[in-house]
Amino acid sequence: MDIRLPKLGEGSESGTVVAILAKPGDRVEKDQTILELENE
Predict the structure, then answer these.
(1) Residue 40 CA from chain centroid, whole number
(2) I need a surface site. Which of 5, 10, 16, 20 has the fewest CB within 10 A?
(3) What three-state secondary structure class fits 15?
(4) What tens digit of pLDDT does each residue of 9-32 get?
(5) What is the Cα–Cα distance from 32 to 36, expressed in whole angstroms?
(6) Which helix (H) or strand (E) holds 40?
């Protein structure tokens, strides 16, 4: 499964996962948010 991340913004190359919204074993749908990412 590929996980696509949004563009982080100009000059940003990395981010930090601040919340994981899907638990192991959860069924996820296409385009469902499964984590929250924060960048500087």
Answers:
(1) 15
(2) 10
(3) coil
(4) 788 888 899 999 999 999 999 889
(5) 11
(6) none
**Confidence (pTM):** 0.63
Q: How many residues does the chain have?
A: 40
- CA 15 to each of CA 2, 29, 36, 38: distance values in angstroms, whole numbers, following the listed order: 18, 23, 10, 5
Q: Where are the domains of the chain?
A: 13-40
User: For residue 11, what are its two tokens?
Assistant: 């000059």
Only one residue has tokens 């190359």, namely 13
Q: Are the C-beta atoms of 12 and 35 separated by less than 8 Å? A: no
Q: Quote the pLDDT of residue 9.
A: 78
